[in-house]
Amino acid sequence: MELKKQMAEDGYPIINHIMPIGTTSIGLDTHIEEWGQSVYHYTLTCRMAPEDDAPPGVVAVDDELRVHDFQKLRIADASIFPNILATHLQATVVAMTEKCADMLKEARVTK
């Protein structure tokens, strides 16, 4: 609300959108209850899992993200997570892909 006020004072055209009636806890809670909604973070199309996992995934990957029965193919996205976190997954996916890159480097060095 303060940012909106400052931008209007600086001459930016501000459209009055749905805003809380004030900055008190009651005003903010009321606004959230009336206008809040869930935002889903879709993560994948098909679950991947180890071969012996139940329920099985559509593609099986091992602990180093290698797809079973394929040479030199790894999966590095959120579909390999055993459980999906109830939060935005960008940082988690980036960390996992960095780990995958480390495993690829290690595999190259050891050969």
Automatic annotation (TrEMBL):
<dbReference type="InterPro" id="IPR036188">
    <property type="entry name" value="FAD/NAD-bd_sf"/>
</dbReference>
<dbReference type="InterPro" id="IPR012132">
    <property type="entry name" value="GMC_OxRdtase"/>
</dbReference>
<dbReference type="InterPro" id="IPR007867">
    <property type="entry name" value="GMC_OxRtase_C"/>
</dbReference>
<dbReference type="GO" id="GO:0050660">
    <property type="term" value="F:flavin adenine dinucleotide binding"/>
</dbReference>
<comment type="similarity">
    <text>Belongs to the GMC oxidoreductase family.</text>
</comment>
<dbReference type="GO" id="GO:0016614">
    <property type="term" value="F:oxidoreductase activity, acting on CH-OH group of donors"/>
</dbReference>
<feature type="domain" description="Glucose-methanol-choline oxidoreductase C-terminal">
    <location>
        <begin position="24"/>
        <end position="96"/>
    </location>
</feature>
<protein>
    <submittedName>
        <fullName>GMC oxidoreductase</fullName>
    </submittedName>
</protein>
<dbReference type="Pfam" id="PF05199">
    <property type="entry name" value="GMC_oxred_C"/>
</dbReference>
